[in-house]
Automatic annotation (TrEMBL):
<keyword id="KW-0963">Cytoplasm</keyword>
<keyword id="KW-0413">Isomerase</keyword>
<keyword id="KW-0808">Transferase</keyword>
<comment type="function">
    <text>Transfers and isomerizes the ribose moiety from AdoMet to the 7-aminomethyl group of 7-deazaguanine (preQ1-tRNA) to give epoxyqueuosine (oQ-tRNA).</text>
</comment>
<dbReference type="GO" id="GO:0008616">
    <property type="term" value="P:tRNA queuosine(34) biosynthetic process"/>
</dbReference>
<dbReference type="InterPro" id="IPR036100">
    <property type="entry name" value="QueA_sf"/>
</dbReference>
<dbReference type="InterPro" id="IPR003699">
    <property type="entry name" value="QueA"/>
</dbReference>
<comment type="subunit">
    <text>Monomer.</text>
</comment>
<keyword id="KW-0671">Queuosine biosynthesis</keyword>
<dbReference type="InterPro" id="IPR042119">
    <property type="entry name" value="QueA_dom2"/>
</dbReference>
<keyword id="KW-0328">Glycosyltransferase</keyword>
<dbReference type="GO" id="GO:0051075">
    <property type="term" value="F:S-adenosylmethionine:tRNA ribosyltransferase-isomerase activity"/>
</dbReference>
<dbReference type="InterPro" id="IPR042118">
    <property type="entry name" value="QueA_dom1"/>
</dbReference>
<comment type="similarity">
    <text>Belongs to the QueA family.</text>
</comment>
<protein>
    <recommendedName>
        <fullName>S-adenosylmethionine:tRNA ribosyltransferase-isomerase</fullName>
        <ecNumber>2.4.99.17</ecNumber>
    </recommendedName>
</protein>
<comment type="pathway">
    <text>tRNA modification; tRNA-queuosine biosynthesis.</text>
</comment>
<dbReference type="GO" id="GO:0005737">
    <property type="term" value="C:cytoplasm"/>
</dbReference>
């Protein structure tokens, strides 16, 4: 499909620079069968049914944004996929000043060597020393806020908690599964009282997910792979819930992409551990997921293509037109939507 079909104009003042407080006070646009209705996130228990399952991503964001030097040259690096205990693939700023074999000093005691370069221009960085890389990143790195936020303000201490979901426990993401940022213990308790079930899986979100699509046709776009896991017990519970009429509602496009990657053709969720580079565009037949809670996405992005596939391009265009006219807040720290095809 033509990528320009997924374009739209967004007033810059609707890009949220901070999350709503409390988290579950964010607005929520319900899109069901083409009908639109305005709510807030804490209304969620009234919008779901007993037996429905909300599926969360428990990945934890690491301080993956690094600034360093190779000699006199300034080098910026955003880690996006782990390749080994001490090795990370990274998107590099000022890459023309870096070649394979060069060493980058990120701080007095954190350095890495560029050991490989791929065909897209990303570098494989090998971190020197024996200390766990996670501890090194805590000292030398910062939270990798999306560029549409980072270009308007600096990262600060508040982002350390704001850009982490309440479910975060498995370190490895370089971007937050932002749909789950809206949840609070109080909201989870209300959902439990309603009879809505919750499950977790792990997908380490990579920065490649949020890259703009530069191709003119979706067929020419190559997705970056991300690592994910669904254990056998979780898969069994998800299948059992669906067999008794419960709907699987993915909380975030990351949960949705992993569920669909793990699903067999008959819709059964299988245990899964490994990489996925699934690219969902209109025409895709969903196998495991019955709905999606997600924030509002960038124009021409793979995520906007995914939500177009779920509810239809015309429906999602109508929903986004309504959201813009109603001053919903967009992107990672913005408001939410509940998509029920």
């Amino acid at each position: 499909m033509r990528v320009d079909l997924f374009d739209f104009e967004l007033p810059s003042e609707l890009i949220a620079l901070r999350p709503a407080r409390p988290r579950d006070s964010a607005r929520l646009l319900k899109v069901a069968g083409g009908a639109l209705s305005d709510h807030v996130v804490r209304d969620l228990p009234t919008l779901l049914r007993t037996g429905d399952v909300l599926v969360f991503n428990d990945t934890k964001v690491i301080p993956a944004q690094l600034e360093g030097r190779r000699g006199e040259a300034k080098i910026g690096a955003t880690l996006h996929k782990r390749a080994g205990p001490r090795d990370w693939w990274a998107f590099v700023r000022n890459a023309k000043r870096l070649k394979v074999g060069d060493r980058i000093d990120f701080s007095a005691d954190v350095s890495a060597t560029a050991s490989e370069r791929d065909e897209q221009g990303a570098f494989l960085l090998h971190f020197e020393g024996e200390e766990p890389v996670e501890l090194m990143l805590e000292r030398a790195g910062r939270m990798p806020l999306p560029p549409y936020i980072a270009s308007k303000r600096g990262t600060d201490a508040q982002d350390l908690s704001d850009y982490q979901t309440m479910f975060a426990k498995d370190e490895g993401a370089v971007a937050a599964p932002t749909a789950a940022l809206h949840f609070t213990p109080e909201l989870l308790a209300a959902l439990e009282e309603r009879g809505v079930l919750t499950e977790t899986l792990t997908l380490h979100v990579g920065a490649g997910t949020f890259l703009p699509v530069k191709a003119e046709d979706t067929a020419d776009h190559k997705m970056h792979a991300e690592w994910g896991r669904i254990d056998a017990a979780t898969a069994d519970r998800l299948n059992a819930a669906r067999a008794t009429g419960g709907r699987l509602i993915a909380v975030g496009t990351t949960s949705l992409r992993l569920l669909e990657s793990a699903a067999s053709e008959d819709g059964q969720v299988q245990p899964f551990e490994g990489d996925t580079a699934i690219f969902i565009t209109p025409g895709y037949r969903f196998k495991a997921v019955d709905g999606l809670m997600t924030n509002f996405h960038l124009p021409r992005s793979t995520l906007f293509m995914l939500v177009s596939a779920l509810v239809g391009l015309e429906v999602i265009q109508s929903a986004y037109t309504h959201a813009i006219a109603s001053s919903y807040r967009f992107y990672s720290y913005g408001d939410s939507s509940l998509l029920l095809p």
